Amino acid sequence: MLSIKKLEAGINGKMILKGISLEVKAGEIHAIMGPNGSGKSTLAAVLAGRDVVEIRGGSVTYLGKDLLQMAPEDRSKEGIFLGFQYPIEIPGVSMVNFMKTAVNEHRKHKGLGPLSASDFLKLMREKKELVEIDSKLANRSVNEGFSGGEKKKNEIFQMAMLEPRLAILDETDSGLDIDALRIVANGVNRLKRPDNSAIVITHYQRLLDYIVPDVVHVLYDGRIVKTAGKELALELEEKGYDWIKKEVDNQN
Amino acid sequence: MEKDQDDIINDITSGEYKYGFFTDIETDKIPKGLNEDIVRLISEKKGEPEWLLEFRLKSYRHWLTKKMPDWANLKIPPIDFQEIIYYAAPKQRPSLESLDNIDPELKRTFDKLGIPLEEQKHLSGVAVDAVMDSVSVKTTFRETLAEMGIIFCSFSEAVREYPDLVRRYLGTVVPYTDNYFASLNSAVFSDGSFCYIPKGVRCPMELSTYFRINAANTGQFERTLLVADEESYVSYLEGCTAPMRDENQLHAAIVEIIAEKNAEVKYSTVQNWYPGDKNGRGGIFNFVTKRGICRGDNSKISWTQVETGSAITWKYPSCILRGDNSTGEFYSVAVTNNHQQADTGTKMIHIGKNTKSTIVSKGISAGQGQNSYRGLVKVLKNASNARNFSQCDSLLLGDKCGAHTFPYLEIDNQSAIVEHEATTSKIGEDQIFYCNQRGISTEDAIGLIVNGYAREVINKLPMEFAVEAQKLLQISLEGSVG
């Protein structure tokens, strides 16, 4: 589904990703872990098409297409969803209006007509239940005045509405209490299908107690330095990142 | 990304002003220039009584003693008042009794503007007075309204049919000495709308005036006089458009509102005069004096304006809160894109006891537009327990535009509570990217964000017009983030 080859990218002239290669197949969940500043969020930004990131080399193929040539909104419509680490507030724009615009853009892309108001509200009700989101949230402005936990639940709610092929969750667990964490993870698990995939970016292993990954990668200093099964996450939790840093630094 | 935004900018700058057409219709014009003979000629053309001619002449003579105001934060090129034609009327002015007498070309013009003159075709519940250049061409639903005692007609007819009412109120809120453009308007005004809501009547439909400038080299100087007698209610709307031309055209109007005891007037404007091209060539100079007086106790006047057009806007719809417990409101969205300039705001004059005013101003600047809020809150000595809340927000799109806020407070009563909040923000690339990531294009994202920002004001408009205003905002700003 997603094939990243020797990807190099930077921000403001500073190299951050120094040659990343990664294959994600349909149905897989990949976890990307790593210490702060290792390039995890930059990788998410590249995949979503954020233009502050300069691509220096390498390629990204998504469902057979050159992803780096696609506009961010087209990536979204082709099924890439980014759960933001810091969801953005848009004052005065109601969640209903925002989601209706987004959902109908996705439908248009698939050659479908816009949803009727009642069908749309029905869909919203269903998906809200999935993430146990307060029903009043939908009438409030996008993320405005939401608590940290509400913002993250709102990301998963939007993901449920858009049913992506590839979900990239950027530190969705940061700042969540254990109840919110469970709800967010449940939402992700219930949306899992054999034909869709997820990349879960996290600093801590605790999210992976709930979302069980098929593969765990460790990103350090712009490179994937270790790839293994889910047991790697547990090892990291126990021993921290220092031993990996040492291993890598010794090799250099 | 970058290429996308350039494309979008190209899309708008290729001129998406869809009301810019010109109607080729025979027009009765008087010679250009301004002097006492011209003032007399206008009065004569309209068959006016002596007292009105005197009013005009007094105004004209006063105007000669005044200078163009220069205190606004505007760069106004010199205006040669002798080069303007002060009266232009589509020929064969129909009798207003029957639509059959209206020139089909005129009818087509208003159809094209979305303002059908046939009552059965019009949005139900909206009565329209259609004004082209210097005259009113048709007022719909007059008979229906007359059954309730509501007078809604062109200003000229009001002068003929209800001279006492006109004479009693004309110039009582905006005196002919008020300011340069008010004096000019009082001398040469040609038509406009008149509305009287009798005691105890709630006007069952929206009343509206649609202003169209068509002829070249003319100025439009109309007056609206709106009287809401005791215990009455009316919601009034105005809309305006003009052809695209390279020359600037002057529009200097006056609106006067009188609200008697327990009366409520809602006055909404969707201003979409031709704004000029992307290089700042052409466009309307919109220099307007709008003021209402809450004369009676418990009366209320509410101004809502969505200002997207005009090359230069200079207007301050104001409320004089004379009655005890009276309320004044001002809700405004003003957009300046390309080279547009706006200096707009309000004056709230608290005279009566327990008077309340609310000001919500939302400026949006894009391109090289300059947008100023200028507002006065004045509380007089005897106005005990006056309350004011002002909120002035500015939104900037891009880095070549400007937003300015000039709030003035004059408080002469210790019991007054006056609050002022102001914010300036830029449309964040973060916000746009967030929308993009959900599948929404940059253009639509800007529309969403701007409409969200302006929602508090748009929500004050009557439903049908709120939808129009939303579209208008989006069109005025498309692609302005670069």
Cα Rg of chain A: 18 Å
Number of strands of chain B: 23
Quote the distance from N terminus to C terminus of chain A: 33 Å
Q: What proportion of the residues of chain A form beta strands (DSSP E)?
A: 25-35%
Give helix % range of chain B: 10-25%
Going by CATH, what is the homologous superfamily of chain A? Answer: P-loop containing nucleotide triphosphate hydrolases
Biggest β-sheet description of chain B:
11 strands, mixed
How are helices and strands ordered from N to C of chain A? EEEHEEHEEHHEHEHEEEHH
Helix amount of chain A: 25-40%
Structural class by helix and strand composition of chain A:
alpha/beta
Give the oligomer, counting copies of the same chain as homo and different chains as hetero.
heterodimer
What does this structure look like?
The complex is a heterodimer of chains A (252) and B (482). Chain A has 252 residues and is an alpha/beta fold. Helices cover 36% and strands 29% of the residues of chain A. Chain A has a single domain (28-51, 72-251), classed as P-loop containing nucleotide triphosphate hydrolases (Rossmann fold), CATH 3.40.50. Chain A has helices spanning 40-48, 72-77, 95-109, 117-130, 148-162, 178-190, 231-239, 242-251, and strands at 2-11, 14-24, 29-33, 53-62, 65-66, 80-83, 90-94, 141-142, 166-170, 197-202, 215-220, 223-228. Chain A is globular and about 60 Å long. Chain B is an alpha/beta fold and 482 residues long. Chain B has one domain (2-476). Chain B has helices spanning 2-13, 36-45, 50-64, 104-112, 142-146, 155-161, 163-169, 180-188, 429-437, 442-453, 455-458, 463-477, and strands spanning 27-29, 88-90, 126-132, 135-139, 151-154, 191-197, 206-212, 222-228, 233-241, 248-251, 254-259, 264-271, 283-294, 300-307, 312-315, 318-321, 327-336, 341-350, 356-365, 370-379, 387-396, 402-411, 417-426. In chain B, the strands form three sheets. In chain B, strands 5, 6, 8, 10, 11, 13, 15, 16, 18, 20 and 22 form an eleven-stranded mixed sheet that branches. Chain B has a ten-stranded mixed sheet with strand order 4-3-7-9-12-14-17-19-21-23. Chain B has a two-stranded antiparallel ribbon with strand order 1-2. In chain B, helix 2 runs antiparallel to helix 3 (50-64), helix 6 packs across helix 7 (163-169) and helix 9 packs across helix 10 (442-453). The longest helix of chain B has 15 residues, at 50-64. The N and C termini of chain B lie close together (10 Å). The A-B interface holds A 48-52, 71-73, 75-77, 81-82, 84, 87-93, 97-99, 101-102, 105-106, 109, 141-142, 158, 162 and B 1-2, 4, 428-431, 433-442, 444, 448-449, 451-456.
